[in-house]
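Continuing the batch. This is chain 6 of the set; chains 1 through 5 are on the previous pages. Same settings as before, nothing changed between runs. Recording input and output for traceability.
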Amino acid sequence: MSSPSAAHESVLGAITRSLDRVLDTIPVPVNTLGCRTVPTENIATDSIKFSQSDCDVMRKLDAYIRDIPDLLVIGKILITQAERYASPGSNGSVAQQLRSSDIMTWEEWLHNHSVDDFHRVVVDGHTWFSLSSVEIHVWTRQAGGSPIELDRLDGDEYAVGTLYPTINLDDINRIFLRGFELIKEDVLWKLVTTNVDQSLLDRMEAWLPPPCVLDSTLLTNALALGAWATAYKRYFSWRSELKSTPYNTTPREYSLRRKTAKRLGHRD
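Output for chain 6:
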């Protein structure tokens, strides 16, 4: 499977840190918790680093559930591009213009950055990133302790939220609260069965997670930075390849010519 883009990693990192901050408030030593949880899975469609299909990720999530039947919470982030990414090539007007200029640094690239226009990153007349939608899907274990059912898309054990083009995380925050309640039940059961000190049990029973787990501003800022980082990685990779490619030859043609010449040289 292809590695996730910076856009995926940035949003996923913001969500993971938010969840970790809540888990850190549980008044039980880490070695006592033993909660069987899996970080939110990321997924995307289209383009080089967006080649992992929804079916691929759903199969991966299903494998997690089969391997860990007592899994409490699992999820995915679906980032869909507005259009399939394509590089400028090597002979167009953009390429000719950039051949005579230095490769922009990350700092120079960020001068084009705006939190409000991350959905379409256009630099030097070319679109390096375009965003259609961002969805977050989360499932929790079924009532009564039954394993997570990925096919079930209704009820209290599933929620979907959006981060773009609209922001709606109400149901996602609700289901994460349910997930933390499941974690609380799991920890309390472990404490009772291991005969810990009553004071620790009392503190755990009194523990409550915050009502709002994910902050929309924090996640939107992470998405914006990730979008521009994804765009810059594409730009930098293309510019580096263009720099070593002879004029009037595409990078692919140049690579094939080098491989052919090498094979012929070996024959000689």
